[in-house]
């Protein structure tokens, strides 16, 4: 479970996003991070039973992303993120790609899965898999329960025109034009504080699992 003080720390960080305050509250940050690491380890061990591709030896510390922002090319110069991000790859040890993602931010937390902004050969391979086996993907994303949990899959950001090598009148053009292949489900602060939140998150990941299988098959 997430401790109340973890969410309180993130709330305080929003209004005190500067180095002096952060250093003065470093112990609070360390405690909050350890809380998130603990939850991550619990999720990994349970999720492996659902998705065998999730490596049970994943180091939860490495799955929790850095809180320090890269401000070199950003107009926003605040040095710290106001959230904890957790990346759990659906295969192997490398973060990113086809994954499950947990976002912890007061009032804006969510669980997600799929493949965010694939590039190059991976994007080409996913589009090819959709073109060849769209029925398999549509069986997943058009399931009533899936839509109730994650919304309309096709409503993600799309290209303005058909991708190269595909006709605009292709019956699956709305899927082929997608830039990302992800789903998200919100998590309330109250839910995060529950003792069984790891089980709830893994339950949601079990619904994302077929999508991840489709995507992993595409890029294999």
UniProtKB/TrEMBL annotation:
InterPro entries: CHP02453, UCP028451. PANTHER family: CHROMOSOME 12, WHOLE GENOME SHOTGUN SEQUENCE, DUF2461 DOMAIN-CONTAINING PROTEIN. This is DUF2461 domain-containing protein. It comes from Mucilaginibacter segetis.
């Amino acid at each position: 479970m997430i401790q109340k003080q973890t969410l309180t720390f993130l709330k305080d960080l929003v209004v005190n996003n500067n180095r002096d305050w952060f250093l003065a509250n470093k112990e609070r940050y360390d405690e909050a991070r350890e809380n998130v690491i603990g939850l991550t380890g619990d999720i990994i061990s349970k999720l492996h039973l659902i998705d065998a591709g999730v490596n049970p030896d994943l180091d939860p510390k490495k799955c929790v992303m850095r809180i320090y922002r890269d401000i070199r090319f950003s107009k926003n110069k605040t040095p710290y993120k106001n959230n904890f991000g957790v990346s759990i790859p659906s295969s192997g040890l490398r973060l990113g790609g086809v994954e499950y993602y947990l976002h912890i931010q007061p009032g804006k937390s969510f669980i997600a899965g799929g493949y965010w902004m694939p590039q190059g050969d991976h994007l080409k391979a996913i589009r090819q898999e959709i073109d060849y086996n769209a029925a398999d993907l549509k069986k997943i994303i058009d399931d009533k329960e899936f839509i109730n949990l994650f919304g309309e899959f096709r409503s993600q950001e799309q290209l303005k025109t058909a991708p190269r090598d595909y006709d605009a009148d292709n019956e699956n053009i709305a899927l082929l034009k997608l830039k990302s292949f992800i789903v998200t489900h919100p998590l309330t602060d109250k839910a995060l504080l529950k003792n069984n939140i790891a089980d709830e998150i893994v339950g949601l990941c079990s619904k994302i699992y077929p999508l991840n299988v489709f995507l992993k098959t595409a890029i294999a």
